[in-house]
Write a structure and sequence with these properties.
Layout: E1 4-5, E2 8-10, E3 23-25, E4 28-29, H1 38-47, E5 62-67, E6 70-75, H2 78-87, E7 92-94, H3 96-106, H4 115-125, H5 131-158, E8 161-162, H6 163-180, H7 188-202, H8 207-211, H9 219-244, H10 255-261, H11 273-304, H12 306-318, H13 334-346, E9 353-357, E10 361-363, E11 366-368, E12 373-376, H14 378-381, H15 424-441, E13 442-446, E14 454-456, E15 460-462, E16 467-472
Parallel strand pairs: 6-12
Antiparallel strand pairs: 1-4, 2-3, 5-6, 7-9, 8-16, 9-12, 10-11, 13-16, 14-15
Amino acid sequence: MPTFSDAIETPAQTTGRLADLPRVVPPHRVPPERELPIPAYLRSIRDNSLTGFPRRAFEELVTRRGLLGRSSFVLSDPEAIRRVLVENQANYARTTGTTRILRPILGDGLLISEGSAWRHQRRTLAPAFTPRAIDGLVPHIAAAVEKGLDDIAAEAAAGPVDLFTSFYRLALEIAGRAMFSVGMDAHGTDLRAFIAEYAERMGRPHLLDIVMPPGWPVPLDWSRSRFRRRWIPFLDRIIAARQASDRHDTGSGDLLDLLATARNPDTGAAFTPKALRDQVATMILAGHETTAGTLFWAAYLLALAPDLQERVAAEARGADLADPTGCQSDGRLPLTRAVIDETLRLYPAAFVVVRRALGPDTVAGHAVKRNDVVMVSPWVLHRHRSLWSDPEAFDPGRFLPGAPPPPRFAYLPFGAGPRVCIGAQFALSEAVLSLARLLARFRIVLDSREPVLPQAVVTTQPDRHPLFRLIPRDEVSP
């Protein structure tokens, strides 16, 4: 059984406008006192990476351990993070294991490409993710949210709801509508089946994924290759069907339009059909997985903090969401946005960034050798004792307007530097709008007080799917 601390509620929070609310510390895993032995550490990478960080990682700014003949560093020092992710980022590449696991499902899309290929893709994609372009996608997001909430309402009328599964469908609907202008009724079931199959069978790191050098086959490579031979035609069919149709649910363009018309500003080159497919796979998979988890954890945290939940609901019900464009950035929903920001602090979807040193470097006074592994873990960073006050507590007041900002490079839910997540503003827009509209319609109550603990393999997810009772706001007594 994992060691964990149960939910705690004490008299007051300490930040800004929320100082009068009870302080809530959600259930959380207690890190091991000492570093795990190598076999146990490697098992944790496969089963739950969060259990592999010892207590000292949350107290010391740089920790080092030996790992399979190399050094492995965990960096929480802001200047060390700046060095690796910004100043000398060209010296640090994705590990062979990461690429081996992700390429079969993402291809050579933006997330895992390197060097000149990455620079070409990033420059080509940049115009599709400007604030103005994101505002153009908001009508698709809003339509998907309304459909998703209607589906959740129908489920809630029959009894307690598995919100994680519901949010997964909602996020996939948002991704599908934003990408293709249409809902995922025709393809959603098959798409979810593909993703679940890969995550459960082939997306979990195996020891050989980590230790084998590039180009050397490992047993799972054959399964991954067979998966890709089915996955590529499936994606091609969806893209072809959308391109052959001139029917849109709204008059605005979609993300596929933006990707198909994108041109490299230096060369004028468009994406090839293969490159377009890889970007579509990357945007759908990386986007919806992150959003589903963030919405689940936000709902769970607010169910543990009912007084705060009522304030968020009041803000949502009082805001004009008829035109949701810019609602997360124009001051209409500051508390809802702060809840999302604090949720991403406590449960960052991307819980670790792992890089392999291509050459020697010096980081925070530590000598990094070629092929050493360097990790920047938002999971550790966001709970570090020297960077955050009361780091285990759920306190959205940290992110309200007027609150002191966190130290630079201490809060990285979307990474940092040139490879910061290009879809960060899209993700924030859909998460804020989804949470606001959910709480405007329902009060969220946990059906059981059994703790829910985070586990991380590809993203940070709950170790079980708790049930929630959703009470329509119109039925809630004042």
